[in-house]
Every structure is written in C-alpha cells, then in structure tokens.
C-alpha cells in the first residue's frame, strides 16, 4: 500500500509566516523612514504614537493601551520627548494631570509611515497580485478581532 504524503502544513508555520511578513514590512518601513529623516524611530515608537493618538494620552492611559506599567510608559514618553515626537502639556480636564501630545514631528512620522505602508502594500500587489493580497487581508479580517491591538510589549514579559 502506498502512503500519500500529507499536504497539511504544520500549525506552527502559520504564526511564523505571519510574524515574518509583519517583520519584513516593519523592517522595510524603518529603512525608508531613516532615508526620510527619521533614523531614530523604532517600531516601539510607532506603537506608542498610535496609542497616544490624535487626542493625546496620560502616561497611565498609555501604559494600559500598551500593556505596560505606568513607569515603563513614562520612560517611553521621556524618550519620545527627547526625540521630538511628543510633548507633555497640562490637561484641560485636570490641572494636576499631564497629557502627552504628538508634535508636528510625531505627526510627520505617522503620515510618512502611512504613505510608506501604502507603497509596501503596492509592492506586495505587484508580487502576488491584487486578488491574492485582497484575499489575505479578507481572511485575516475574518479571524482577527476588530480594533487595533498595540499591547504587543506585554507578550514578552515573564509575568
């Protein structure tokens, strides 16, 4: 009796391929950001700037959104302030609270990132075809819960 080799891909390959695709896009993004004047930007900065958002955020809120402690969020904010991507300002709602807001440089980074991601997606379309890229995106929308999740930092803690 002849055995037919299984065509089933091992389950562990899927997360590795998804992560590899993510990593490829992020690495290419940061290569291009460096060429466009943001050589100091790191992937964690993008997550933090997205979590801060257009309305701003307190360090506590930022920590919750990123899945890190208030102290870790504060260190991230300190770094982003030094790099000129955010600023601290008094809260209009609570004079005791400080709100972290995006600066024009931070907004520039986000706008450039968006344009670069559009170009990277276009490269995937040229390589794979529009239908295949659309199918991958549709499939991921089916299995990935809605809403942005930027708390990836929490995956790497030993708690």
Which features would summarize this protein structure in a list?
159 residues, mainly alpha
Question: Would you mind describing this structure in some detail?
Answer:
The protein is mainly alpha-helical. The chain has a domain at 41-144: Winged helix-like DNA-binding domain superfamily/Winged helix DNA-binding domain (Arc Repressor Mutant, subunit A), CATH 1.10.10.10. Helices cover 59% and strands 6% of the residues. It has helices spanning 13-35, 43-52, 59-66, 70-83, 104-128, 130-143, and strands at residues 86-90, 98-102. Helix 2 packs across helix 3 (59-66) and helix 3 packs across helix 4. The longest helix is centred in the C-terminal third of the chain and has 25 residues, at 104-128. The termini are far apart. Residues 11-145 form the HTH marR-type domain. Pfam families: MarR_2 (PF12802). This is MarR family winged helix-turn-helix transcriptional regulator.
């Amino acid at each position: 009796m002849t055995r037919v080799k299984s065509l089933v891909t091992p389950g562990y390959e899927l997360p590795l391929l998804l992560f590899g695709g993510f990593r490829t896009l992020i690495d290419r993004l940061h290569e291009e950001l460096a060429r466009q004047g943001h050589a100091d930007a790191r992937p964690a900065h993008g997550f933090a700037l997205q979590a801060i958002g257009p309305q701003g955020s307190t360090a506590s809120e930022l920590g919750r959104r990123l899945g890190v402690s208030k102290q870790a969020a504060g260190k991230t904010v300190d770094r982003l302030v030094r790099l000129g991507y955010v600023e601290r300002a008094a809260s209009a709602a609570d004079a005791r609270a400080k709100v972290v807001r995006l600066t024009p440089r931070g907004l520039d980074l986000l706008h450039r990132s968006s344009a670069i991601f559009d170009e990277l997606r276009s490269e995937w379309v040229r390589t794979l075809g529009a239908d295949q890229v659309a199918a991958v995106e549709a499939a991921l929308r089916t299995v990935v819960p809605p809403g942005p999740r930027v708390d990836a930092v929490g995956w790497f803690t030993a708690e």
